[in-house]
Amino acid sequence: ALLILAAAAALASPTVAAPLEWCSADGFTGWQIGPDRLTFDHRGAASIVSSEAVTEREGEFAFEFRRNYGPWARLELRFRASGDEQTYGAVVLEPLQGRLSLVRKQDGRFVDTQCQPAQLDPLAPGLHRLSYRIEDRRLAVSLDGKQLLETDATGLPPEGRIGLSAAFARIELSAPRLQLSPPEATGEVLDLADWKVLYGPAAWTRAPE
């Protein structure tokens, strides 16, 4: 069964509570975290990561690019992150470059994924879904239900944290939706407000509610 990591997964659901904002001494990070959605709006880059590790077979985010601030707009979905984020897999979407790529980092070094980026048509306005599946030592990536990338998953940690990185855009995202492995496994619902900032301006603190 699918585990929804928030009170609801619908991106269009109304938010009653005021969103949390991650701030720093140097300024706003760009991330706002509501009970069922995340919003990134920043002319720069910043990342957030879940506070708990999971063992998942599939993961999916619904997202919408509302605005791009130049050609380097980017959304990156990270998974199986471990070792202070020095090891992970990631799907990188660059809408204005028309590119969807797989990235692997192992012990702080980027490694060859043996997978050429997929060339994309311009994203239509509205909601899109970015997903990945890890099965039988293979990693597959789909956009809007169409598989575009596949490579060897050997070397990925057996479990890890889910993360998001974004840059130079306004993006709205739903809470992540995961299928755990094994299928009968259960786990706590991860509170989006407990996610932590991975990088961006220094000295992160959560803004007063």
Radius of gyration: 16 Å
Looking at the structure, what is the overall shape? globular
Structural class estimated from helices and strands: mainly beta
The proportion of residues forming helix, as a percent range, comes to under 10%
Specify the number of helices. Answer: 0
Main β-sheet description: 17 strands, antiparallel
Number of strands: 17
Distance between the termini: 34 Å
**What is the typical, i.e. mean, pLDDT?**
76
> Which stretches of 5+ consecutive residues score pLDDT under 50?
1-26, 201-209
Strand-residue proportion: over 45%
Structure description:
This protein has a 17-stranded antiparallel sheet that branches. Strand 12 (138-143) and strand 13 (146-152) form a beta hairpin. Helix content is 0%, strand content 56%. The chain is built from no helices and 17 strands. The chain is mostly beta strands and 209 residues long. It is globular, with a radius of gyration of 16 Å.
Short overview:
The protein has strands spanning 2-4, 20-24, 27-33, 37-49, 56-68, 74-82, 87-94, 99-106, 109-111, 118-119, 128-135, 138-143, 146-152, 161-174, 177-180, 196-199, 204-206. The protein has 209 residues and is mainly beta.
Give the topology, please:
Blueprint: E1 2-4, E2 20-24, E3 27-33, E4 37-49, E5 56-68, E6 74-82, E7 87-94, E8 99-106, E9 109-111, E10 118-119, E11 128-135, E12 138-143, E13 146-152, E14 161-174, E15 177-180, E16 196-199, E17 204-206
Antiparallel strand pairs: 1-15, 2-3, 2-17, 3-4, 4-14, 4-16, 5-11, 5-14, 5-15, 6-7, 6-14, 7-8, 8-9, 8-10, 11-12, 12-13
